[in-house]
């Protein structure tokens, strides 16, 4: 009995001792944190005014542990945020931002741009998640301040070069030098990721500067800029000029529904997605009106316009230079080329005015594919196009290339990405078999969004691959209520998951299990 009575007293004493120890530990941890923060501030501020591979540091501030980096991510162990400038020519002013985490994993991660801009335009999304994972994060402004237009290029040929490739190359040289100085050792690996124009950035680095990065992620790459923008204007003309043009857009939902009725179950399950649009045997002729017109059928002119868009853009020699959008992506068309002011058509007009012809008055309604596409290729193709398929120099260093593309992307159509990947493998030799991968995502639109799962850990897969894992055969993609917030670092539970298979394999339903779970599918 006494033993039982004494037990609580012993427990109280033990807890009291633990409280004292905990208080001491907390005090010690706080002091250690304060010292680390003080040292971090001093170490970070010492970078001010110094030059690293031509980049002059203009700002260096330290974010202590626990402080916010964006709306979703806090600094875990302190981050030194550096802003620097580069001027490789008298008409160049390239801004770079490099974030250096106190808990460094020994690697550097660069990110590409979007639209007419560099990665600095969405630094608050990319850099916090990079340093959260222990990477030194790098972005550039591609040589100009953020702009929805390309007016910055008018009369500035050197800025066009900065945007085309020089900013990313010079930026990583500076970031590597800065990293080595800050940590006292060089980064053991450097990775790059980008989508859309950022995907073009990625391929440009692999082609022009194969020594800059050890592994690269290129998503939905807008690698052939001259063909991309010519294609936008051609599709916009088809959608807005001529018989049946303007009346087709309101019927695109009808077209997509018919395509789903024909091909949704090709992968074994009806889930609102076409697993492999390239194999979809949908003939839109089934929608042709038997007589007259109506909301539930297509007239002959509408059908003709639809087929022309699916076909893609033909060059002067009759070859397809820009593939058409895939079957099932019709809900995305209006946003990109449904009107002269749609995102793609509007950007294309801006591109021709400011980058190609240097004429702000150039009229996109006068666009002629046979004239303007070759003119753009001749004038700016060498600077902006990342079309070289031979990646032997990159692969010979052990480089890894992971490409991905959404099947529902109506901007950089999937057929273009597949065409580059096939050409690259033909030109790059045997190494490309195990050192390159392409993943085609059913239902994913341009870089994200769409009707299917669109969020996946390409970086984690790439890092494991470089570190010795077998070449990846699947990416597990998730669909969230707000995938953009997740990309910024928000935590959320996925609504559904699905495997994205290494091309040319596609995911097929096993015959049992929830269609919303990746485990119910197999790649074949």
Automatic annotation (TrEMBL):
InterPro entries: AB_hydrolase_fold, Tannase/feruloyl_esterase. GO terms for molecular function: carboxylic ester hydrolase activity; metal ion binding. Residues 1-26 form the signal peptide. Gene3D superfamilies: alpha/beta hydrolase. It comes from the Bacteria. Keywords: Calcium, Disulfide bond, Hydrolase, Metal-binding, Serine esterase, Signal. Belongs to the tannase family. This is Tannase/feruloyl esterase family alpha/beta hydrolase.
């Amino acid at each position: 009995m006494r033993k039982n009575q004494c037990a609580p007293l012993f427990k109280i004493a033990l807890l009291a001792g633990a409280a004292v120890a905990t208080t001491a530990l907390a005090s010690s941890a706080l002091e250690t944190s304060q010292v680390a923060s003080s040292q971090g501030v001093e170490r970070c501020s010492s970078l001010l005014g110094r030059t690293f591979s031509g980049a002059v540091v203009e700002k260096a501030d330290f974010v202590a542990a626990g402080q916010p980096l964006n709306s979703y991510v806090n600094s875990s162990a302190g981050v030194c945020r550096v802003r620097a400038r580069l001027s490789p020519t008298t008409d160049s002013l390239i801004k770079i931002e490099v974030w250096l985490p106190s808990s460094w994993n020994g690697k550097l991660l660069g990110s590409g741009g979007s639209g007419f801009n560099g990665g600095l335009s969405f630094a608050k999304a990319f850099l916090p998640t990079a340093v959260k994972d222990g990477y030194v994060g790098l972005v550039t402004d591609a040589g100009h301040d953020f702009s929805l237009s390309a007016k910055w290029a008018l009369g500035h040929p050197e800025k066009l070069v900065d945007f085309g490739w020089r900013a990313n190359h010079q930026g990583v040289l500076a970031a590597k030098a800065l990293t080595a100085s800050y940590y006292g050792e060089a980064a053991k690996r450097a990775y790059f990721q980008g989508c859309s124009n950022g995907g073009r950035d990625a391929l440009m680095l692999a082609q022009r500067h194969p020594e800059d990065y050890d592994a690269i992620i290129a998503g939905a790459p807008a690698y052939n800029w001259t063909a991309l923008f010519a294609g936008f204007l051609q599709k916009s003309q088809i959608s807005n000029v001529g018989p049946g043009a303007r009346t087709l857009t309101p019927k695109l939902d009808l077209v997509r529904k018919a395509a789903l009725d024909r091909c949704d179950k090709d992968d074994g399950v009806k889930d609102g997605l076409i697993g492999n649009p390239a194999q979809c045997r949908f003939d839109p002729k089934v929608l042709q009106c038997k007589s007259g017109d109506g909301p539930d059928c297509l007239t002959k002119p509408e059908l003709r316009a639809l087929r022309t868009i699916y076909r893609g853009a033909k060059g002067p020699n009759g070859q397809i230079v820009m593939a058409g959008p895939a079957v099932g992506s019709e809900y995305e068309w209006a946003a990109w080329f449904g009107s002269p002011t749609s995102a793609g058509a509007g950007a294309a007009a801006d591109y021709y005015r400011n980058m190609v012809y240097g004429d702000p008055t150039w009229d996109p309604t006068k666009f002629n594919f046979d004239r303007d596409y070759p003119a753009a290729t001749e004038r700016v193709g060498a600077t902006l196009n990342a079309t070289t398929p031979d990646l032997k120099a990159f692969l010979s260093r052990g480089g890894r290339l992971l490409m991905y593309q959404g099947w529902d992307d109506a901007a950089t159509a999937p057929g273009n990405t597949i065409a580059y990947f096939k050409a690259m493998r033909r030109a790059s030799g045997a190494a490309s078999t195990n050192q390159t991968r392409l993943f085609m995502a059913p239902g994913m639109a341009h870089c994200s969004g769409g009707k299917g799962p669109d969020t996946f850990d390409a970086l984690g897969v790439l890092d494991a691959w470089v570190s010795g894992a077998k070449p990846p055969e699947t990416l597990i993609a998730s669909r969230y209520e707000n995938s953009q917030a997740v990309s910024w670092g928000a935590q959320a539970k996925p609504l559904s998951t699905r495997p994205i298979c290494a091309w040319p394999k596609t995911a097929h339903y096993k015959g049992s299990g929830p269609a919303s779970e990746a485990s119910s599918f197999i790649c074949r």
